[in-house]
Known about the structure:
The complex is a heterodimer. Helix content of chain A is 0%, strand content 50%. Chain A is mainly β.
Amino acid sequence: AQKITQTQPGMFVQEKEAVTLDCTYDTSDPSYGLFWYKQPSSGEMIFLIYQGSYDQQNATEGRYSLNFQKARKSANLVISASQLGDSAMYFCAMREGRSGGSYIPTFGRGTSLIVHP
Amino acid sequence: DTGVSQNPRHKITKRGQNVTFRCDPISEHNRLYWYRQTLGQGPEFLTYFQNEAQLEKSRLLSDRFSAERPKGSFSTLEIQRTEQGDSAMYLCASSLGLGGSGPIFGEGSWLTVV
Lengths: 117, 114
């Protein structure tokens, strides 16, 4: 079974509008963490935001916020006031307890975001 | 530059040759990860070090692949007898424990096997 599911292969948004990128996850571990990364065409993975499973409040980092709905096992990324430079691939990832407690992040297949003027 | 550094950035090699990639993590980071990414996919886990100990390896890491992290500093990923299916981007990431942020990635090393 997929640990991380990103159902939107591509999204388009107009500059200055908000956009939500979907992510659902599957785990039975009560302690886990969720991440979002941005990957522009240059290839580097850029860390955006982190949410721990025990965090009471949704994480925010500047224009990025994470809409964490634990019961639905979803961790959607909201980008407010989109900019042209936001055009990139976006990956959702999760780390959970594994044998030996290594907590290795597992990534989804990504969503391509295109911001147009 | 205090980020994660990977070398070489691009490598073209003939099938059957050996290649080695190097990763220099952020100096205080004790965890180091190697991932592989092919077009249209997310990064796939290959192996993980905590300090100098290699604690986990993916099934993707066939016996042609070997990784080391001597003295818990830089790491190398070697692929022996390369195959065309090895063509991918190899990503290195590091982190300090399980802090409240994700691992920091390098810019990746692109491998093309011809």
